[in-house]
Amino acid sequence: MNNFPNPPLDNIAGIASFNFVEVEKVNSIPFVINNKITSSIVLKDGYLWFKGYSSIDSLEYSEPIKQSNHGNIIEAELKGFVPESPEILQLFTKMDGRRFILHLTDNDNLKKIAGTIEQPLTFLCNFETQTVSGNKGYKYHFKGLLTKRAPIYTAADPTTMPDDNPQESSSI
Q: Is the separation of the CB atoms in 122 and 79 below 8 Å?
């Protein structure tokens, strides 16, 4: 054990962006060494990461720990809000209940991978008429139980997007 390290001077809270891919589209995730993934995640041929979206100040990621008879369990969750639209309804209908791996980028540009092939995060959403700023829309979350915290990802950015309309692309 060591002392707590001093944080960087510009330690900005929050998640800036996220990308997601269905767990079935992931070929392999490199081993985690010292809480880091230093080699690229490999997707199956023809599949790409999709870009997520959340209204301003509604995107949150957490990893609370629960103790069990079998050790610590991390309850990982990314949640956010998006306004209602026909395109969002169509996309979320396809995504509901499916399992994903997430690529998270925080406001200090630190990148992490949430979920594994064996322990993916499940997508669910709720429609509400009074939510963030009084707008109607969907509160969504990717949630799952993990045995280890999301590791830092230092390999090349895997999240090349197919286009600006991921809901129209082939993977979901």
A: no
Q: What is the pLDDT of residues 23-61, one digit of tens each?
A: 999 999 999 999 999 999 999 999 999 999 998 888 999
Burial of 40 (0-12, 13-18, 19+ CB in 10 A): middle
pTM given for the model: 0.84
- Can you give the residue range of the structural domain that contains 128? 15-161
Tell me the Cα Rg of the chain.
Answer: 16
Q: Within 13 Å of residue 75, how many CA atoms lie on the same side as its CB?
A: 7
Number of domains in the chain: 1
Q: Please name the residues in contact with 41: beta carbons below 8 A apart, sequence gap of 6 or more.
A: 26, 28, 29, 30, 101, 103, 113, 153, 155, 158
User: Does residue 69 form part of some domain?
Assistant: yes
Is residue 9 assigned to a domain?
Answer: no
Q: 90, 69, 88, 71: which is closest to 80 by C-alpha?
A: 88
Q: Which of 168, 158, 172 is nearest to 98 (CA)?
A: 172
> What 3-state DSSP class applies to 165?
coil
Q: What is the DSSP letter of 153?
A: E
CB neighbours of 35 closer than 8 A, spacing ≥ 6? 149, 151, 152
Residue type (1 letter), 12: I
- Cβ 44 vs Cβ 22: under 8 Å: no
